[in-house]
Amino acid sequence: MKDNLDRMPEECGVFGVFGAKDVAPSLYYGLISLQHRGQESAGVVVSDGKQLKSHKGVGLVDEVFKDFASSQYKGHLGIGHVRYSTSGGGSIENCQPLLFNCKLGQAALAHNGNLVNAQTLRHQLEQQGSIFHSTNDSEVIAHLLSRASSDDLEGAIASALGQVRGAYSLLLMTEDKLIAIRDPLGIRPLVLGRKDDQYIVASESCALDIVGAKLVREIEPGEMLTISSEGLEWDNILYSKKRAFCSFEYIYFSRPDSDFMGKNVHTVRKNLGKVLAKYHPAKGDIVTGVPDSSLSAAAGLAEGLGIPYESALIRNRYVGRTFIKPSQEGRIAGVNLKLNVINSVIKGKKVIMVDDSIVRGTTSRKIVEMLKQGGAKEVHVRISAPPVTHPCHLGIDTSSQGELLAANSSLEEMTKAIKADSLAFLTPKELLEGVGVKDGLCDACFTGKYPVKMGCCK
Ligand SMILES: O=P(O)(O)OC[C@H]1O[C@H](OP(=O)(O)OP(=O)(O)O)[C@H](O)[C@@H]1O
Ligand SMILES: NC(=O)CC[C@H](N)C(=O)O
Ligand code: SF4
Ligand SMILES: [Mg+2]
């Protein structure tokens, strides 16, 4: 199928632009709006039609781009990445986009997701003589591309992706093309936007808003979009009947102002809160949420129960997401620095505290303690997701089974562990009800039913 530039209507995070005179400012703004998806490193690759140039580093987008000489990065095409490592550590060699040379020329790739057979493929490739420059799974794709027998890029991509298993929303670029691909199950999000004669691809629609682009549509699972001066072409290169969009994107990961499958994330979270109120009510004087990601669900639960919502917890906005910090020490320090209680709001009250998830239990444990120390009479915890009992191998670092509170304890033990007066979660079925779908969501971290064959993971 084909369209051209004029006729087209108007995790890690990935962001790509084609068609602007100077893409660097859009790449920077896009990455800033996707910062919540990865805080370990950031980078961009820009093409002026002749050469690809890369700028990347460890740290937040603002830190990495502090000394960015944008005048040296002029180009009409570029991709960017914010990383939160799922395979390989957070060091500089693992930062993305990965820039490489192969028989097809210079290319760069930015990957959101995680490949479950990367180690096996890497081992095979090393046996055949490949030399890897990083320890992340994404580099396997670059090697497979360079070894594909096909002489055109699209053919090489189809051959490379036919060999990988797992989650990938992928941006690839050469000096004159931007290619966007989503894995056949559509595990990670990827959207297409348009602004005048520019095309933009991004992990979330909130990144389109920031550069003034309009959402055209989502990239379909298994679809490859090619954007060049010839216009936009698309093709379904990887077919699967099954769909498995990550339910955690709705629950926690994405920004509330993003939309997936025609559903706004804030609205979905609010519905999850209403479903919690319906099946797992609690008696209390006030409802409060844990900033940031559970505020929408807390508002839904408050509405569902007819109990006033109060902001009892205040967040220091200069501390990032704690769950995606790479070490447990970092996560504990993060929670302590990040949240504080307004004692006068909770003193002598029965508080219903809503969070979106319990993974390791670091946050809930700390917050129940803070609320009780602040004078709450009772603290009832309601979680707008099912208990996380299995690790994710598909792009969210829910860590090993041993670290997951719910994998190793009963509801009663968890209630004791976080010192709550009561605790309840949604069931996987209630999660579907809250999202408003019958199927098509991955819920493996709650059920252990992985949508792809495991075998070799991280
Ligand atoms: O049980 P745990 O291991 O503590 O993980 C779960 C917590 O981590 C996340 O919050 P986080 O602080 O990362 O991000 P947020 O500020 O977006 O809510 C999530 O919203 C839970 O609060
Ligand atoms: N969170 C992600 O999507 C990470 C992408 C890739 N697996 C990496 O570790 O670099
Ligand atoms: S296992 Fe959980 S976190 Fe991972 S993709 Fe599936 S729903 Fe998302
Ligand atoms: Mg949170």
Layout of SSEs?
Elements: E1 2-3, E2 13-18, H1 24-33, E3 41-47, E4 52-58, H2 61-64, E5 77-83, E6 98-102, E7 105-115, H3 118-127, H4 138-147, H5 153-161, E8 166-173, E9 178-182, E10 191-195, E11 198-202, H6 206-210, E12 214-218, E13 223-228, E14 231-236, E15 245-246, H7 247-253, E16 259-260, E17 263-264, H8 265-279, E18 286-289, H9 295-305, E19 313-315, H10 328-338, E20 339-341, H11 343-346, E21 350-355, H12 362-373, E22 378-383, H13 405-408, H14 411-417, E23 422-425, H15 428-435, E24 441-442, H16 444-447
Parallel strand pairs: 15-24, 18-21, 21-22, 22-23
Antiparallel strand pairs: 1-14, 2-5, 2-11, 3-4, 3-5, 6-7, 7-8, 8-9, 9-13, 10-11, 10-12, 13-14, 16-17, 19-20
Bound molecules: 1-O-pyrophosphono-5-O-phosphono-alpha-D-ribofuranose, glutamine, iron/sulfur cluster and magnesium ion (MG).
